[in-house]
Amino acid sequence: MTQAIVVEGLRKKFGHREVLHGLDFAVEAGTVFGVIGPNGAGKTTTMRCLLDIIRPSAGSISVLGQHPRSAGTSLRRRIGYLPGELHLENRTTGRRTLEHFAAISGPVDPHHVNDLADRLNLDLDRQTRKLSKGNKQKLGLLQAFMHQPELLVLDEPTSGLDPLVQQVFHAMVREAVAAGATVFLSSHVLSEVQQAADAVAILRDGEIVTVSTVEALRMAAVRQLRFNSTGTAANDVGALLARVPGVANVAVRELPADGHAAGTVVATATLSGHVQPLVQELARLNLTDLVLEEPDLEEAVLTLYTGGADAEPAAGTVAAGSASSPRRAEGAHRA
Ligand SMILES: Nc1ncnc2c1ncn2[C@@H]1O[C@H](COP(=O)(O)OP(=O)(O)OP(=O)(O)O)[C@@H](O)[C@H]1O
């Protein structure tokens, strides 16, 4: 499979201050790659380097097999770009604005534009200055998607969109990928990218902390476990849990007989990693209740954001760093 984006050793300085410290990553063609990170992490700066809006201080970038710096407008036409802040001419309509963008991005099918506007519920004949924040964002999305580009670079695409329109956006992404496009998008929070992305890079202070699949993040995230069992002493339940890989914070106690079967033991613990070893051990018990909560991915990502004590890259992930070759996210490939 070919790579739509290859970034090696990307550094960017503004004045004396370096804000990107040597990023290495690659995006497989036909996949969705999400970059998440807190404010100021460098997401927008990375995207602007990909589009040659700003020049890197060091490192190399290949986009759709070309170098953005030398490729010029021919490459630009193959890309749809939603900037974080879209500057719109106030005294014109959405339709005229799109015509202006079409002059840059290349031929656009007007039926396709109308179809997208309908789906996004956007009135193209309104003056752009009268559009709400969310409607301006829809116009920004429309100009990014309208020429059916090979690569979509979308800076905070769901910002300001209501949940229904977010669903339309996710459908648009799926359709673009089904047609062979590659999508590179950014967000502050995982929930926005987890629906769409095959691979997720977590960016913190101008460095990639980890590149992972959503599934690998899920594996690394901690889940709460609680169950009731009968017929086994509390100490033995505790010992059984203690030998399961990934289980921690075990607490076991016997419930008073009132309202419960005699000898009911309630156990709580946390689990990270695979569930199968846990299920195997639990099968030895006579369970009367069992709850294994959904992993809190946001929390897992926040730990990586802040570099907390447990901020190890997720199992099965690829840590990106100073290596000379770009790393690929495991399992991030489409068949
Ligand atoms: N033109 C510029 N001049 C000086 N510093 C800049 C410039 N553009 C960005 N920066 C700095 O670079 C760092 C990264 O900013 P960037 O906008 O790329 O972050 P981000 O991850 O996109 O943040 P956000 O989520 O807030 O949009 C920040 O510290 C920012 O202040």
From TrEMBL:
**Source lineage:** Bacteria, Bacillati, Actinomycetota, Actinomycetes, Micrococcales
- Family assignment? Belongs to the ABC transporter superfamily.
Q: Which Gene3D superfamilies match?
A: P-loop containing nucleotide triphosphate hydrolases
| Domain ABC transporter: residue ranges | 5-230
Source organism per UniProt: Arthrobacter bambusae
Q: Where is this region: Disordered?
A: 315-335
Annotated GO MF terms: ATP binding
Q: Where's it found, cell-wise?
A: Cell membrane
Protein name as annotated: ABC-2 type transport system ATP-binding protein
> Residues of the signal sequence?
none
